[in-house]
């Protein structure tokens, strides 16, 4: 499962990335703190999809990386 995160502090992002990996998840850095507003919209997006499209709350967003 993927975990998206954003921030402006490189050291903090490295720590967060390592923590996410320690949980067995894949960290995906989406950029600076200005991107956090777009990440916040993911929650309502998933709730709407669960109620009106997927039919279940057992869903997640993921990214397929080439290669």
The chain-level mean pLDDT equals: 91
Number of strands: 2
Question: Strand portion, in percent?
Answer: 5-15%
Can you count the helices? 3
Briefly note the structural class of the backbone: alpha+beta
H/E element order: EHEHH
Rounded to the nearest angstrom, the distance between the terminal CA atoms is 18 Å
Output the radius of gyration.
14 Å
Low-confidence stretches: none
Strand order across the largest sheet: 1-2
- Give the % helix: 40-55%
InterPro entries: NAD(P)-bd_dom_sf (IPR036291)
Structural account:
With 67 residues, this protein is α+β, with helices and mostly antiparallel strands. It has one domain. Helices cover 46% and strands 12% of the residues. It contains 3 helices and 2 strands; from the N terminus they run βαβαα. The chain has a two-stranded parallel sheet with strand order 1-2. The protein is globular, with a radius of gyration of 14 Å. The mean pLDDT is 91.
């Amino acid at each position: 499962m993927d975990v998206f995160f954003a921030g402006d502090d490189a050291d903090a992002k490295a720590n967060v990335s390592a923590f996410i990996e320690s949980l067995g998840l894949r960290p995906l850095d989406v950029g600076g703190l200005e991107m956090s507003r777009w990440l916040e919209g993911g929650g309502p997006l998933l709730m709407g999809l669960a109620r009106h499209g997927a039919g279940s709350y057992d869903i997640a967003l993921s990214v397929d990386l080439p290669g």
